[in-house]
Design a protein that fits this description.
Layout (H helix, E strand, L loop, with lengths): L1 H15 L1 E2 L2 E2 L23 H6 L7 H19 L4 H10 L5 H14 L4 H13 L6 H14 L5 H11 L4 H15 L3 H6 L6
Antiparallel strand pairs: 1-2
Helix pairs in contact: 3-4, 4-5, 4-6, 6-7, 6-8, 7-9
Amino acid sequence: MRWLAVTGSLLIGVALAVVGGQLFFSAVLPPSWLASSEPAASDAGTAQDAAAGEGDTRPFAAKLQDQIVLIVDQELRQNPSSSGFWLWLADLRKNRPPEEFNAALLMSQLTAPNEAYIMQERAILGISRWDILTPELRRSIIRDTATVAPRINAVSAERYRRASAGIPETERHEIGETLATYYDIKPYRLKRLGLAEQ
């Protein structure tokens, strides 16, 4: 899948670009962003420098994320049916306003409602932001969870359990009861996901 290939390329690019202890991602970031975080007095605050990234004193990771968002956006313009990229965009938006996160998560669901790996990752991401999901997306995340629960491996089950830990216990158990009642998910599987009493 193209989104996995792009993800892998980004990670490899970062891993191979550590030179002299400084992270250098020339394929994505302007070299000026890797200079001292203190801009020169002569060029601080100018509109041209701001547009080019000069004088941006944000942490490198924040600048990198901005560039990744641009890459994901470009990919979605070229291939709007890519559920993996919609899911990636949702992950990048998880701390943005709820409507932005929900829109990307919904597009992932619409473009790949039954793709097992996407469903698993969408379930983990969605349950981590359960508090801001629309009713429609909550139902979608429950369906995704019901599909992946019987086959999820131990590592991913632990990721799901940690992602669901922020939901109040009574509400988590209500989700578990819904899964047990309507999807016949066994209690031991729900316990693995943190959706039933241990």
